[in-house]
Amino acid sequence: MAIEIEKPAVGLSKVAVSDTHGEDSPYFAGWKAYDEDPYDELSNPSGVIQMGLAENQVSFDLLEQYIEKHSEATNLGNRTSGFRDNALFQDYHGLQSFRKAMACFMEQIRGGRAKFNPDRVVITAGATAANELLTFILADPGDALLIPTPYYPGLSKDLGLPGFRVGTIYSYNDKVVTTARRMSSFTLISSQTQQLLASMLSDKTFTENYIKTNRERLKKRYQMIIDGLKNSGIECLKGNAGLFCWMNLSPLLEDPTKESELTLWKSMLHEVKLNISPGSSCHCSDPGWFRVCFANMSEQTLKVALTRIHDFMDGRKAMKTSPDFSSY
């Protein structure tokens, strides 16, 4: 006869059970709604439009063109110096060619106004890993970090390649650089990814054209959404960079509370099928502000999204101005 051994319950940490950045948070709930019913201009024109994901897809064509023209960058075709080298352990400091290319790219982005030493570059598996690594290096138990709000949870936005999981730590403090390198073995990037990006970022012709074109396209998209929201009577915070804007829907709240904000967010998600991020999911202190991403879709899809927002606002205005016959 088999004896059943009672398994002790495993308790989870407060962080694990928190609803601020878990599967039950508005951020992930909206993402799930999109995954279950994604918008497609032809096959699903009434689906959910994803405006809650801060991705930069406006210049994907430039990245794809580069990879197509420089397939040797992956070096998989060379049996001896390609796959076998990439499949083995590399220096956990990161490939020297990649750190050099990253330092040059950082200088380019800043218009040459700053110089970066490749020996002070520490690479990590994404910006989130970089922040975590710095926390372990600089903070002791009981210490606190001061973070301005609102803020976005997960990063990796410069090239619009968040899936490549590449982050960078750069410090003028020798102890920080040395310790970060020692601990970076926990956050390594694959050698193949480093090799591809080293080739791409070392190509000055490509990077200069990418930076210029990408900024022009982002500026155009930003103006599109700002003008579109203004035509719908929505105020936005003024910005000069980034992949999203903050729009103010506080006039539509029944009460100036987080609960009322989430009720409005659910209405937009289910009535007009737009996934935007309520400010509370980014720890915004004032209820009614919503983060709207505009660079993760085509211009045509953005126009559809703006039309839906306009219709939503018209519907809310009509509800406010309609007579109340309940007292008659």
TrEMBL record:
Keywords attached to this entry: Pyridoxal phosphate
Residue ranges annotated for the Aminotransferase class I/classII large domain, each copy included: 49-153, 154-309
Top-level lineage group: Eukaryota
UniProt cross-references to SUPFAM superfamilies, sorted A to Z: PLP-dependent transferases
Keyword Glycoprotein on entry: no
Pfam family, one: Aminotran_1_2
CDD domains: AAT_like
Molecular functions per Gene Ontology: 1-aminocyclopropane-1-carboxylate synthase activity; pyridoxal phosphate binding; transaminase activity
InterPro entries: Aminotransferase_I/II_large, Ethylene_sulfur-biosynth, NHTrfase_class1_PyrdxlP-BS, PyrdxlP-dep_Trfase, PyrdxlP-dep_Trfase_major, PyrdxlP-dep_Trfase_small
Family designation: Belongs to the class-I pyridoxal-phosphate-dependent aminotransferase family.
PANTHER family: AMINOTRANSFERASE CLASS I_CLASSII DOMAIN-CONTAINING PROTEIN, BIFUNCTIONAL ASPARTATE AMINOTRANSFERASE AND GLUTAMATE/ASPARTATE-PREPHENATE AMINOTRANSFERASE-RELATED
Protein name: 1-aminocyclopropane-1-carboxylate synthase 7-like
Organism for this UniProt entry: Olea europaea subsp. europaea
